[in-house]
Specification:
By secondary structure, this protein is of the alpha/beta class. The protein is built from ten helices and ten strands. It has a single domain, classed as Rossmann fold, CATH 3.40.50.
Length: 245
């Protein structure tokens, strides 16, 4: 349905909704922007969008655009938007507005023409249906860039993360590694302390970094703790590499 992304980049997915994909994607855009890259950002499909004077707006896309310093308008950064906070296939059906993949491809073409790195954010988890035939996994397979998996820190994340990694590998999607988000640094429990090691061992992947729990985000500014932690990773090499385990 979509052409492979022609640029080095990363696709940010998650083990579930609300795990922090947007924060990680925005921090990645910020990381590349601070190093002089022309960062393209795209959230192909968003639900739970806000009604504004100019129409439906994805607040996730707003943050991505701000952190990337993109010149692209929001309707290009996020070409398919739905008001209800539901799986895209459900939201699209209820809105009587099927996902238009030609519009998504047009956005990708416009963005990549003016960029040299790409950060793409998915929606929900990898098996969330986007339309009657395709899931987020299909979208990732079409675009063919390495995946960064965002996972929760708390109890239950092992199962969610290992299932996500298994699904990605089964579909031939390259995995850059896992980012654990929302780690309670001041009062971690045994689960939070041991989960990263278990995910690395059983998931046969790397924990790229562990982002601290942030009580309140002052949009559109990223917390210094998030930026500092992301700086510990060489994202350029992960975005530019070939097959990754």
């Amino acid at each position: 349905m979509l052409s492979p992304c022609p640029l080095p980049g990363l696709f940010v997915t998650g083990t579930d909704t609300g795990v922090g994909k947007t924060i990680v994607a925005a921090a990645l855009a910020n990381w590349f922007d601070r190093r002089g890259a022309l960062v393209g950002v795209c959230k192909p499909i968003a639900t739970g969008c806000a009604h504004r004077r100019e129409g439906l707006v994805s607040e996730d896309a707003e943050l991505l655009a701000h952190c990337a310093n993109t010149r692209q308008p929001l309707d290009i950064v996020c070409p398919q938007r739905y008001a209800e906070p539901l799986a895209p296939a459900v939201a699209a059906k209820r809105a009587n507005q099927p996902v238009d993949w030609t519009v998504v491809q047009r956005s990708m073409d416009l963005i990549t023409q003016e960029s040299d790195r790409m950060i793409i954010e998915g929606v929900g988890g990898v098996l969330v249906p986007l339309d009657d035939r395709n899931t987020v996994l299909d979208l990732m397979a079409w675009l063919d860039i390495p995946a960064v998996v965002v996972a929760r820190a708390a109890l239950g994340t092992i199962n969610h993360t290992l299932l996500t990694l298994q699904a990605l590998r089964k579909n031939g999607i390259r995995i850059a590694g896992v980012v654990i988000n929302g780690y309670p640094a001041e009062s971690p429990g045994i689960a939070e302390e041991t989960n990263p090691h278990i995910i690395e061992r059983w998931g046969k992947t790397k924990i790229l970094c562990i982002l601290p729990q942030v009580q309140q985000l002052q949009m559109p500014h990223l917390p210094a703790d998030i930026i500092g932690t992301m700086d510990s990773v060489d994202w350029e090499s992960l975005a530019s590499r070939g097959p990754i385990a």
